């Protein structure tokens, strides 16, 4: 809004003066149009993830919900490398809010892991939207039945710059598992697994659903999802904050036994230096009051308690924007 106003002033007092300001009527009309804009109008940039991910489709729904709740506001969804990339973009001021996995959030705020010595002290959450689990999927004909079997094999650990990549590589390092990492996009991973250049790949997925990329892959290749043993879980939990484990029952994909895998809360975050209380509150309110748009993309969100989930994230070290918190505390 400030930029638009300044540009209009420039046109009227600078270039407009050079042209003689064709008529007082034109000048008055320009200012009248400016004043007619909604008072809360602004443009926001939302950092999502790779466009092939089902999380990206939810991000588009979030943009629609925020716009619906704030007439005049425009939200632009940007394809990114997900959590780690989004935090770095927030640091550079390239986005206003973005998807961040809980473990990445805690590491960024505390200056640990990939953010060693470079804490993002004013990182804050605006709203949550479900937990995500890691799917470590391998070709069924690879003969690999446990995580240790990945050592020495060509494997893609996730979207480059994503929270999934960070969590998998950190976990495998702790456990002494040493795949031959092949980096690329999700499409590269699907193609690589499909033509047997990779034994598998890993990626975040919604807790109750098979990720869209894995569904696509399974139309061509029989896949198996690997889990963590109890001992492996204990090692990860002791060293990586913001992570828990869940057991997914047998049959998550056809013929797959039950498996234990990391689970993290997902939030959309910003920085205190980038967003004031009023904007943070109206974003949280718009998501809360227009959640049906998100549910239409991810039906499992129908029973998701946004308020409870956000307040629970505080217990694992996720700070909440004061403006957003004001809404969530008063929400029903």
User: How would you characterize the largest beta sheet?
Assistant: 10 strands, mixed
Number of strands: 10
Average per-residue pLDDT, rounded, comes to 87
Rg computed from alpha carbons, rounded to a whole number of angstroms: 23 Å
Explained architecture:
- It is a single chain.
- Strand 5, helix 6 (163-175) and strand 6 form a beta-alpha-beta unit.
- The longest helix has 17 residues, at 2-18.
- Helix content is 42%, strand content 20%.
- Strands 1, 2, 3, 4, 5, 6, 7, 8, 9 and 10 form a 10-stranded mixed beta sheet that branches.
- The chain is of the alpha/beta class and 332 residues long.
- It has helices at 2-18, 24-36, 54-69, 83-92, 102-110, 163-175, 186-194, 212-217, 230-239, 277-289, 291-295, 306-313, 322-330, and strands spanning 43-47, 74-78, 97-101, 123-139, 154-156, 180-181, 200-206, 223-226, 244-248, 259-271.
- Residues 1-39 have low confidence and may be disordered.
